[in-house]
Structures are given as structure tokens and as C-alpha cells.
């Protein structure tokens, strides 16, 4: 299929040229966790804080991507894999432009996250495990989806009847139970900021 495709990998401008222009590193901050764990809240808060520091960002949220580029995908293992593959490829494009890309997707399994890391490149991939217990997420039930899943109205719901494997060695783990949003954001910002500014 790819025999007539001739991609140009040699470009006049490199990722580093673009990072130097922006005075930032184009890292991808990949936020992982159960529905309701706090990924979107922290991703949005982080983006605002980085923007206020003069850093150019892009936010990719699973729910939003599923209304556009991923609108044909559901929640089977196969569709989740394709969902993450596309999100990782898009992240890579932004990252190569020097843009700090913040992704907020459940990314439920080790193999899915390994794929994302391989697409983006190990040096640019910062995995953040946003951790709250299933009991806490269910108690929050921000969108009422856990109640629907328990009632059998949603099938293959992560943590209920579809697996979530906790990341074993993330760049950072943020436990959002028993911490305020501001405390979690302080920890997140303080951890990623040096990576964004390293080498500049
Ligand atoms: N079956 C099922 N399982 C999990 N989540 C579900 C499901 N159906 C709908 N939703 C809503 O979809 C959001 C998760 O989409 P993602 O693209 O992040 O999921 S995944 O990474 O492909 O597993 C998720 O958003 P978040 O709550 O922000 O995680 C839910 O709002
Ligand atoms: N420390 C915290 N960090 C992030 N969210 C928190 C925290 N404490 C409580 N919350 C609440 O948890 C919920 C997380 O929802 P959301 O960000 O939509 O999660 P997700 O994107 O993972 O589905 C929000 O209602 C938020 O106010």
C-alpha cells in the first residue's frame, strides 16, 4: 500500500530550530487516568498557567477529539487503540513544531501507552498518572456516566467492565484524592516547567 508514498523526512527546519524560536521544548504531557480522576481539570489549569508564562501550548482532550478527528471511534479495545494512535500522531506534529502539547485521554492499558510513547518519541513524552480510586471517581461522577454504566446503559466503561492498568513508571503521579485542584496544579506545573525550559 505504501509503495507509491514518498514522504520527505529531510526538512530544512528542524524541531530544535522551532523550539529555539519559541524558547521552549516541544514536550508532550500525556495525562492518563480513570474518567473523573481529574485529567481535564488539571490539563486545562496547566495550559492556562503555562500560557501565562509565555509558553505556546495545545490541548488535546479525549472527549473533544471524539467529536472530530476520532468521531467514528467507540470504546472497543480496537477503537481505543486507534483513538490513542491518532491522538499520538497529532501530538507529534504539534511537538515537532515546538508546541507544548497537553493530552488528556484515559489511555487505559500499558500497551496503548507504550504505542503513544513510541510514536511521540521517548525524549518528548512525559506521562502523568492522574490517580484517584474508582470509588472516588464514582462518587464524583462528574458526567453521570458511572451511574449509567452501573445501570448497564453504557457498556465497556473503564474501571467497571473494561480494564484500567495503572501506569508502572510514569514521569509523575498526581493523587487527586485529598488534594485541592490548586495543590495538584502546583505539583504538575513545578514538575513539567523545567522540562519545557531545559536547554533554553
Ligand atoms: N465506555 C466508556 N469508557 C470510558 N469513557 C467513556 C465511555 N463512554 C463514554 N466515555 C467518555 O469518553 C471519555 C474517554 O475518552 P478517551 O478518548 O479518553 O478514552 S480512551 O483513552 O480511548 O480509553 C470519558 O471522558 P473523561 O471522563 O474525561 O475521561 C467519558 O466522558
Ligand atoms: N485535586 C484535584 N485535581 C483535579 N480535579 C479534582 C481535584 N479534586 C477534586 N477534583 C474534581 O474532580 C473532578 C474531575 O473531573 P475531570 O477533570 O472532568 O476528570 P477527567 O477529565 O479525568 O474525567 C472535577 O469535578 C474536579 O473539580
From TrEMBL:
Pathway given in the UniProt record: Sulfur metabolism; hydrogen sulfide biosynthesis; sulfite from sulfate: step 2/3
Positions contributing to ATP binding: 33-40
Record-annotated APS kinase domain positions: 25-173
Main function: Catalyzes the synthesis of activated sulfate.
GO biological process: hydrogen sulfide biosynthetic process; sulfate assimilation
Chemical reaction(s) catalysed: adenosine 5'-phosphosulfate + ATP = 3'-phosphoadenylyl sulfate + ADP + H(+)
Keyword match Kinase: yes
Protein's name in the database: Adenylyl-sulfate kinase
MF-aspect GO terms: adenylylsulfate kinase activity; ATP binding
Keywords from the UniProt entry: ATP-binding, Kinase, Nucleotide-binding, Phosphoprotein, Transferase
InterPro entries: APS, APS_kinase_dom, P-loop_NTPase
Family: Belongs to the APS kinase family.
Gene: cysC
Active site: 107
UniProt-listed Enzyme Commission number(s): 2.7.1.25
Amino acid at each position: 500500500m505504501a509503495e507509491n508514498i514518498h514522504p520527505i523526512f529531510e526538512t530544512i527546519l528542524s524541531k530544535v530550530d522551532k523550539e529555539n524560536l519559541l524558547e521552549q521544548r516541544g514536550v508532550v504531557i500525556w495525562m492518563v487516568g480513570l474518567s473523573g480522576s481529574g485529567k481535564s481539570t488539571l490539563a486545562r489549569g496547566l495550559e492556562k498557567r503555562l500560557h501565562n508564562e509565555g509558553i505556546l501550548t495545545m490541548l488535546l482532550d479525549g472527549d473533544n477529539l471524539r467529536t472530530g478527528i476520532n468521531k467514528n471511534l467507540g470504546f472497543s479495545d480496537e477503537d481505543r487503540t486507534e483513538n490513542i494512535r491518532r491522538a499520538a500522531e497529532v501530538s507529534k506534529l504539534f511537538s515537532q513544531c515546538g508546541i507544548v502539547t497537553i493530552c488528556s485521554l484515559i489511555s487505559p492499558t500499558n500497551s496503548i501507552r507504550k504505542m503513544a510513547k513510541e510514536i511521540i518519541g521517548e525524549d518528548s513524552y512525559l506521562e502523568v498518572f492522574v490517580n484517584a480510586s474508582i470509588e472516588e471517581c464514582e462518587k464524583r461522577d462528574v458526567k453521570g456516566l458511572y451511574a449509567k454504566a452501573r445501570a448497564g446503559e453504557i457498556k465497556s466503561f473503564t474501571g467497571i467492565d473494561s480494564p484500567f492498568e495503572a501506569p508502572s513508571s510514569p514521569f509523575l503521579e498526581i493523587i487527586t484524592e485529598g488534594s485541592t485542584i490548586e495543590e495538584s496544579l502546583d505539583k504538575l506545573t513545578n514538575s513539567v516547567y523545567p522540562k519545557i525550559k531545559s536547554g533554553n
